[in-house]
Design brief:
This protein has helices spanning 14-17, 19-33, 45-78, 96-123, 246-257, 265-271, 290-295, 306-313; strands at 132-134, 137-138, 146-153, 156-161, 166-169, 171-175, 180-186, 191-195, 199-204, 210-214, 220-226, 238-244, 281-283. It is an alpha+beta fold.
Length: 368
């Protein structure tokens, strides 16, 4: 048209035309670069075996998943409507060889996966004492594990070391290459004790005791937390786990022994009250039998322990320390058959003597 000016259009290069392509590739790499795959690369042998089991199971399942996805894409491309060279067999419905392949491969993988997971589940049972420190390094005979008693409070972690007579709040430590035996419970609600570098999580439940055996193989400062939601202060229910050499662990024990406060039962009752984002606390001494009292819900003076209640229910009244007949063995009660006399009167011999609510009688019942 007269008076109209045309401006040249510059064709953009592929990079300029699709700037989002580079971003789509870069963003996942940046996100993955910030990830710490601690579950698959832990510092403890038990967690390492568990991570290897996850990798093995994933790879074994991918043996089926990857070919299936590839074949779906291949079939969709090869037998597309525009490909007239593909063989068209609308009446085909069966192939013995294909059926064997379809069913045999998954069946073999399921058998293999089941055998491996069944074996690993028993070998990595948290209640089972560990038999090796690392691969090719069995636990030396007569090795004494480090005993740690764990109490999940609202919302903090209490760790008691009965061997050393100390306790800490929100800080845990253990020497490298020494087996650890955890005894775990909770004061009120259920939590889950989890140190990803050490071993898998295990629940902490009130009035119950769970166990966990593990070992740390590398020095370091590792994260620990509760992996089960337990209320308002759950997000701050975290602690640090220190893997130390023998000298470092001895210094850590000495540091706790120099603390000014003991963990008496009275101090425990104060500590038990809910609090959020609690800092590290140290106790130089621990009241005897405190952990067992926490498990049995009898830390408070005058409270009957649950173990005593169960022993009393089993027939031993000597277990009830607060009952008048304590110390006296309970005599077994004679068991007699239940009779009608227990209900207030003897049963009638003749059913016709039973007073009926209507004119019906047992020999001539009324039907509804």
């Amino acid at each position: 048209m007269p008076g109209t000016r045309f401006f040249p259009v510059r064709r953009s290069s592929p990079t300029t035309r699709l700037p989002w392509t580079k971003g789509c590739l870069t963003l996942p790499l940046l996100l993955l670069g910030a990830c710490n795959t601690v579950v698959l690369n832990p510092a403890g042998d038990v967690a390492l075996q568990q991570g290897n089991l996850v990798i093995f199971a994933t790879v074994l399942m991918l043996v089926i998943v990857v070919p299936v996805i590839a074949l779906v894409c291949l079939f969709a491309w090869r037998y597309r409507a525009s490909n007239e060279e593909a063989t068209y067999e609308p009446d085909w419905d069966h192939s013995t060889q294909l059926e064997l392949l379809i069913w045999a491969a998954p069946l073999l993988i399921i058998i293999c996966l089941g055998a491996v997971t069944w074996t690993a589940t028993h070998l990595l049972d948290p209640y089972r004492p560990i038999e090796r420190i690392a691969k090719g390094r069995p636990v030396a005979p007569n090795t004494k594990p480090l005993d740690v008693q764990v109490v999940a409070l609202d919302w903090k972690w209490l760790f008691i070391y009965p061997e050393y007579g100390i306790a800490t709040v929100n800080e845990l430590a253990a020497p490298v290459d020494r087996p650890i035996r955890f005894r775990i419970t909770a004061s009120s609600v259920m939590n889950a004790f989890y140190v990803p570098d050490l071993a898998g999580m295990i629940y902490a439940m009130p009035s119950m005791e769970t166990k966990l055996h593990a070992v740390i193989n590398k020095k370091g400062n590792y994260a620990g937390f509760s992996s089960n939601y337990s209320g308002a202060g759950f997000s701050g229910m975290r602690f640090r786990f220190h893997g130390l050499d023998d000298a470092g662990f001895a210094a850590w024990v000495a540091k706790n022994k120099a603390a000014p406060l003991p963990l008496s039962r009275g101090n425990y009752l104060k500590l038990e009250k809910p609090s959020e984002n609690t800092p590290v606390m140290r106790f130089a001494a621990v009241a005897p039998g405190l952990f067992d009292a926490v498990v049995n819900q009898c830390v408070r003076p005058g409270t009957t322990c649950m173990s005593d209640m169960m022993r009393h229910d089993a027939g031993d009244t000597a277990a009830m320390k607060h009952m008048p007949d304590k110390g006296n063995a309970q005599k077994p009660k004679p068991e007699e058959a239940l009779t009608g006399g227990d209900a207030g009167e003897a049963p009638t011999k003749n059913p016709k003597d039973v007073q009926q609510r209507s004119n019906a009688s047992p020999s001539n019942p009324t039907t509804l």
